[in-house]
């Protein structure tokens, strides 16, 4: 009798072990990308200016792609910003990039080379327009910039596009009624500290490292950009519909804002590529973007806003086929 129970016990143990291996096998199968080998090769990712959010986000995203696609080499290339980024991808000089929706819309409206082939991968986070002056400056409104030395961003930047439109909305000719300086977040703070400019525009995610660094050893303030100016900007053309009036939260630069919000403009950022980009590669890139949100968000605060529910809204761009495949695969 004992031998019989022993045989039954061994049989049940073996059956249990076999069932366990089956469950484990099914679990591993479910977690694996269905036998799909990670893409390999080389791609170019156009980022932005040093000390800007595009550059930092691009660097962190490359590190995440290295983990999931070790055979893919991602070459990062700095740029002036959104306008240059859009042109690079459209003309094949870069494969992926980040750009503000207004710059994308403007490029398409102007029917520039390759515009019809642009496609969206994901809506990422919002840029906030930040107008910075010295703390004791008598500049308290955009209208006060008349006759001043104003950094309006590099020629091919998204900052330049927005600064020109903000000034125009305030009745200021950006070429004649101010002394324009082609400087961005990498040089603007030093120019302000040295007294070589009176104000500078920046458009980026919150907070931006260049301004966090400036806040540590220099007293400055933000000039409000009210909803009335945003309404006037909307009269300047279809691409301005991507601007919306909002408030920069008091937590963005607490030492500078001292508990106060700042009226300003927000515009969404898009991760983008081209229609002819390999769909399987784009699907993997999209997956990494969504998967890495929390990890990147620890280093780039604005990246915490990347959300699967809103990532698909890449207006004015249609989704690239690979991105569409990914979103369909994870749809509940």
Q: In one word, what is the shape? A: globular
Instruction: Round the mean pLDDT to the nearest integer and report it.
Output: 91
Span of the ends, CA to CA? 54 Å
Largest sheet: 10 strands, mixed
- In sequence order, what are the helices and strands, one letter per element? HEHEHEHEEHEHEHEHEHEHHH
* Unreliable stretches covering 5 or more consecutive residues: 1-11, 16-35
What descriptors fit this protein?
38% helix, ten-stranded mixed sheet, alpha/beta, disordered N terminus, 332 residues
Structural overview:
The model is unreliable at 1-11 and 16-35 (pLDDT under 50). It is built from twelve helices and ten strands. It has helices spanning 2-31, 53-68, 82-90, 101-109, 158-169, 188-193, 209-215, 227-233, 254-257, 279-291, 293-297, 321-329, and strands at 41-46, 72-77, 96-100, 118-134, 149-151, 179-181, 199-204, 220-222, 244-248, 262-274. With 332 residues, it is α/β, with parallel strands linked by helices. Strands 1, 2, 3, 4, 5, 6, 7, 8, 9 and 10 form a ten-stranded mixed sheet that branches.
């Amino acid at each position: 009798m004992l031998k019989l129970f022993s045989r039954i016990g061994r049989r049940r143990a073996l059956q249990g072990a076999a069932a366990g291996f089956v469950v484990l096998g099914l679990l591993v199968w479910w977690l694996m990308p269905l036998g799909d080998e990670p893409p390999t090769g080389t791609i170019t990712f156009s980022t932005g200016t040093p000390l800007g959010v595009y550059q930092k986000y691009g660097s962190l995203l490359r590190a995440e792609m290295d983990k999931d696609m070790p055979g893919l080499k991602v070459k990062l290339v700095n740029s002036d910003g959104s306008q240059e980024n859009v042109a690079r991808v459209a003309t094949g000089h870069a494969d992926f990039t980040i750009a503000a929706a207004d710059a994308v819309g403007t490029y398409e409206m102007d029917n520039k080379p390759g515009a019809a082939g642009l496609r969206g991968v994901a809506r990422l986070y919002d840029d906030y327009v930040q107008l910075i002056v010295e703390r004791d400056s008598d500049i308290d409104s955009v209208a006060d910039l008349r006759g001043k030395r104003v950094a309006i961003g590099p020629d091919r930047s998204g900052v330049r596009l927005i600064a020109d439109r903000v000034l125009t909305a305030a009745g200021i000719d950006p070429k004649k009624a101010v002394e324009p300086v082609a400087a961005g977040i990498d040089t603007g703070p030093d120019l302000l500290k040295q007294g070589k400019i009176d104000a500078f525009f920046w458009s980026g995610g919150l907070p931006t490292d260049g301004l966090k660094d400036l806040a540590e050893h220099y007293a400055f303030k933000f000039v409000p950009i009210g909803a009335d100016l945003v309404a006037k900007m909307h009269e300047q053309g279809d691409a301005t519909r991507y601007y919306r009036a909002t408030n920069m939260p008091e937590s963005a630069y607490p030492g500078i804002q001292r508990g106060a919000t700042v009226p300003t403009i927000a515009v969404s950022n898009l991760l983008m590529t081209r229609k002819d980009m390999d769909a399987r590669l784009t699907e993997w890139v999209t997956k990494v973007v969504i998967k890495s949100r929390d990890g990147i968000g620890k280093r780039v605060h604005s990246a915490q806003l990347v959300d699967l529910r809103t990532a698909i809204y890449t207006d004015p761009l249609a989704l690239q086929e690979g991105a569409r495949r990914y979103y369909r695969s994870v749809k509940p």
